[in-house]
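Reviewers of the previous submission asked for a worked example of the structure-prediction workflow described in the proposal, so we include one complete record here. The input consisted solely of the amino acid sequence. No template or homolog information was supplied to the procedure at any stage.
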Amino acid sequence: MAEELVCEYYETDTQYRYRWNLPALPGSRFTFEVQANNDAHVALSSQNQDLDAMYEIVLGGWGNTQSVIRRGKQRTNLAKVSTPGINSPTEHRAFWITWSSDGTIAVGKGDETEPFMQWTDPDPLPIAYAGYSTGWGSTGRWKFCPSARPDVCEYDDTDNQYRYRWNLPPLTGSRFTFEVQANNDAHVALSSQNRDQDAMYEIVLGGWGNTQSVIRRGKQGHNHAKASTPGINSPTEYRAFWITWSSDGTIAVGKGDETEPFMQWTDPDPLPIAYAGYSTGWGSTGRWKFCPSARPDVCEYYETDTQYRYRWNLPPLTVSRFTFEVQANNDAHVALSSQNQDLDAMYEIVLGGWRNTQSVIRRSKQGNNHATVSTPGINSPTEYRAFWITWSSDGTIAVGKGDETEPFMQWTDPDPLPIAYAGYSTGWGSTGRWKFCPSARPDVCEYDETDTQYRYRWNLPPLTGSRCTFEVQANNDAHVALSSQNQDQDAMYEIVLGGWGNTQSVIRRGKQGHNHAKASTPGINSPTEHRAFWITWSSDGTIAVGKGDETEPFMQWTDPDPLPIAYAGYSTGWGSTGRWKFCPSARPDVCEYYETDTQYRYRWNLPPLTVSRFTFEVQANNDAHVALSSQNQDLDAMYEIVLGGWRNTQSVIRRSKQGNNHATVSTPGINSPTEYRAFWITWSSDGTIAVGKGDETEPFMQWTDPDPLPIAYAGYSTGWGSTGRWKFCQSVLSEGKFEL
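From that input alone, the workflow returned the following structure tokens.
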């Protein structure tokens, strides 16, 4: 579904009393929207209750004219800002509050990155919960949504004293990004502890009157790298920088969105790095901004000389794809090994050997050429060229270029070697510059070919969900089997695409078994292009088959006695060969489809609910019912939501099946018998049940249960003369979870 922010809505009265019904705070930022006349108050506490020692932020106090930060409820105003009209009684206004390890509390508006109010507590309090209140004659309507903002930033100022601040959290990767506004001498230290040490790295940006930058191994130590950088800092605007470090000791420094460093040095005896400190000095103050990096291409850069010698300083390979860029005259070599060292048995890929004219795949260093391809000019000494290498469980090594999806060279090893590390080298008179970045490609694909023998291949990894996607190029008879084991079984499903001379498709329960579903599909396969398909299966035994990006299946069948599915096999036959492509699906809407009849009877075949939001689409004439229960069955105490009852004119919320209507809304025409309509239901810890439509963020109906029921399952039904077609999709939520 398109809705990504799962929000909770609450109201506060004119009583100055904090509500503590929000979940624990997961980070150092709290965002919210509020509609109030004045005096919107937020408390930050170590417990979900009022404490003597807690922070209080007042927005629009004193008749909506001023805002303050306090250290205690109704205590001294430690920060005070004139904010006339900051709240509105007619529209939601968005705010954010951040806190950092040095005790800085910062308050800002909406999408603004700079706070309008902040204060630094010299004795910071722990923060784990947020409370909210209105008062002084004002009510409030509050909206709390998971923040979708990637730039949750911390701000700090440094004086002209050369003294490192160590108040940032520990570094979690090998890249540190920041922005600084300074006249000169912006210094960053990288240390194994959050304090100055004799052995630490020091990066100076714009020293010597903002003319030079250096890398040192020690505070005020020797300049191991030095670059001319006139005007690199600015006293009037933020300038962005990044620093990376790698396992071979290379410290690289770059600017903003530039991918190439302007300064780097390789320490022959690398120091451990866990913390970053920052300082200004030599007459300059600084304003610093630290944000989590949104860059997906955190890259490492290395150089190789003309000696044919593999470097093994890259981290272990975690998937079956390796991507890189290289700038070389010829002979860019990559080795794939089970250990981070040269082995007798390892794969060697040569790109542009023989004076940049040929490429090969070998099963050992300088071994036999098992695949040889003419590739004149494949490398360049003046620009980076991008390549990828994939390997699959059947032993196929495939090599491709850049964004191309088809390999230009491949070979299948009949006795595959394990692969866990990649090494790289140049030689034969060529040096190399290498760039290794985490791959941003979602389609890390495997390729295979099948002959005319009707024989399933079971070399794919286990299925991890209830959907299998693939592409196939065939004349006819592309077969897919779904089995509980990675082998043929008597009890398995068989899907035939384009059998009978590419005219019909079927679903079977057994190899060459009875055709339980049959669809006319003339020309469904193509011998000249890949055609995309998907197969889904659900807990009620429904096998559905569809094409490409289509959401509706063209063929489906429900097995009354469902078989377990864990593996997929594939085959061609009947005179047809096949070229197959298997890629992880990039589709977020992995959906299940069901139908309900006119009997008012809840179906409980959906998986347990994992979050406090349930989304669905339904096509019905009237009376689409959803039940929310603590068990996957009807209970006396469960919520019932009726959409379009009373001949599609009203919707209600109940606390039992056919119980009292606790909320009733006029909704003429809410359902449609000819198209899917999308809805969402949310529930919160204070008992509020909210119901909304499609992409709308505001509910059209809600009710707060004073004695909330636990919710773990959803059921669905139609009735009163109406049938229903239902669609349940895994919605990708902002916190990265999946739900039905």
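Residues 1-5, 731-740 have pLDDT under 50 and may be disordered. We consider this example representative of the routine output the project will generate in years two and three.
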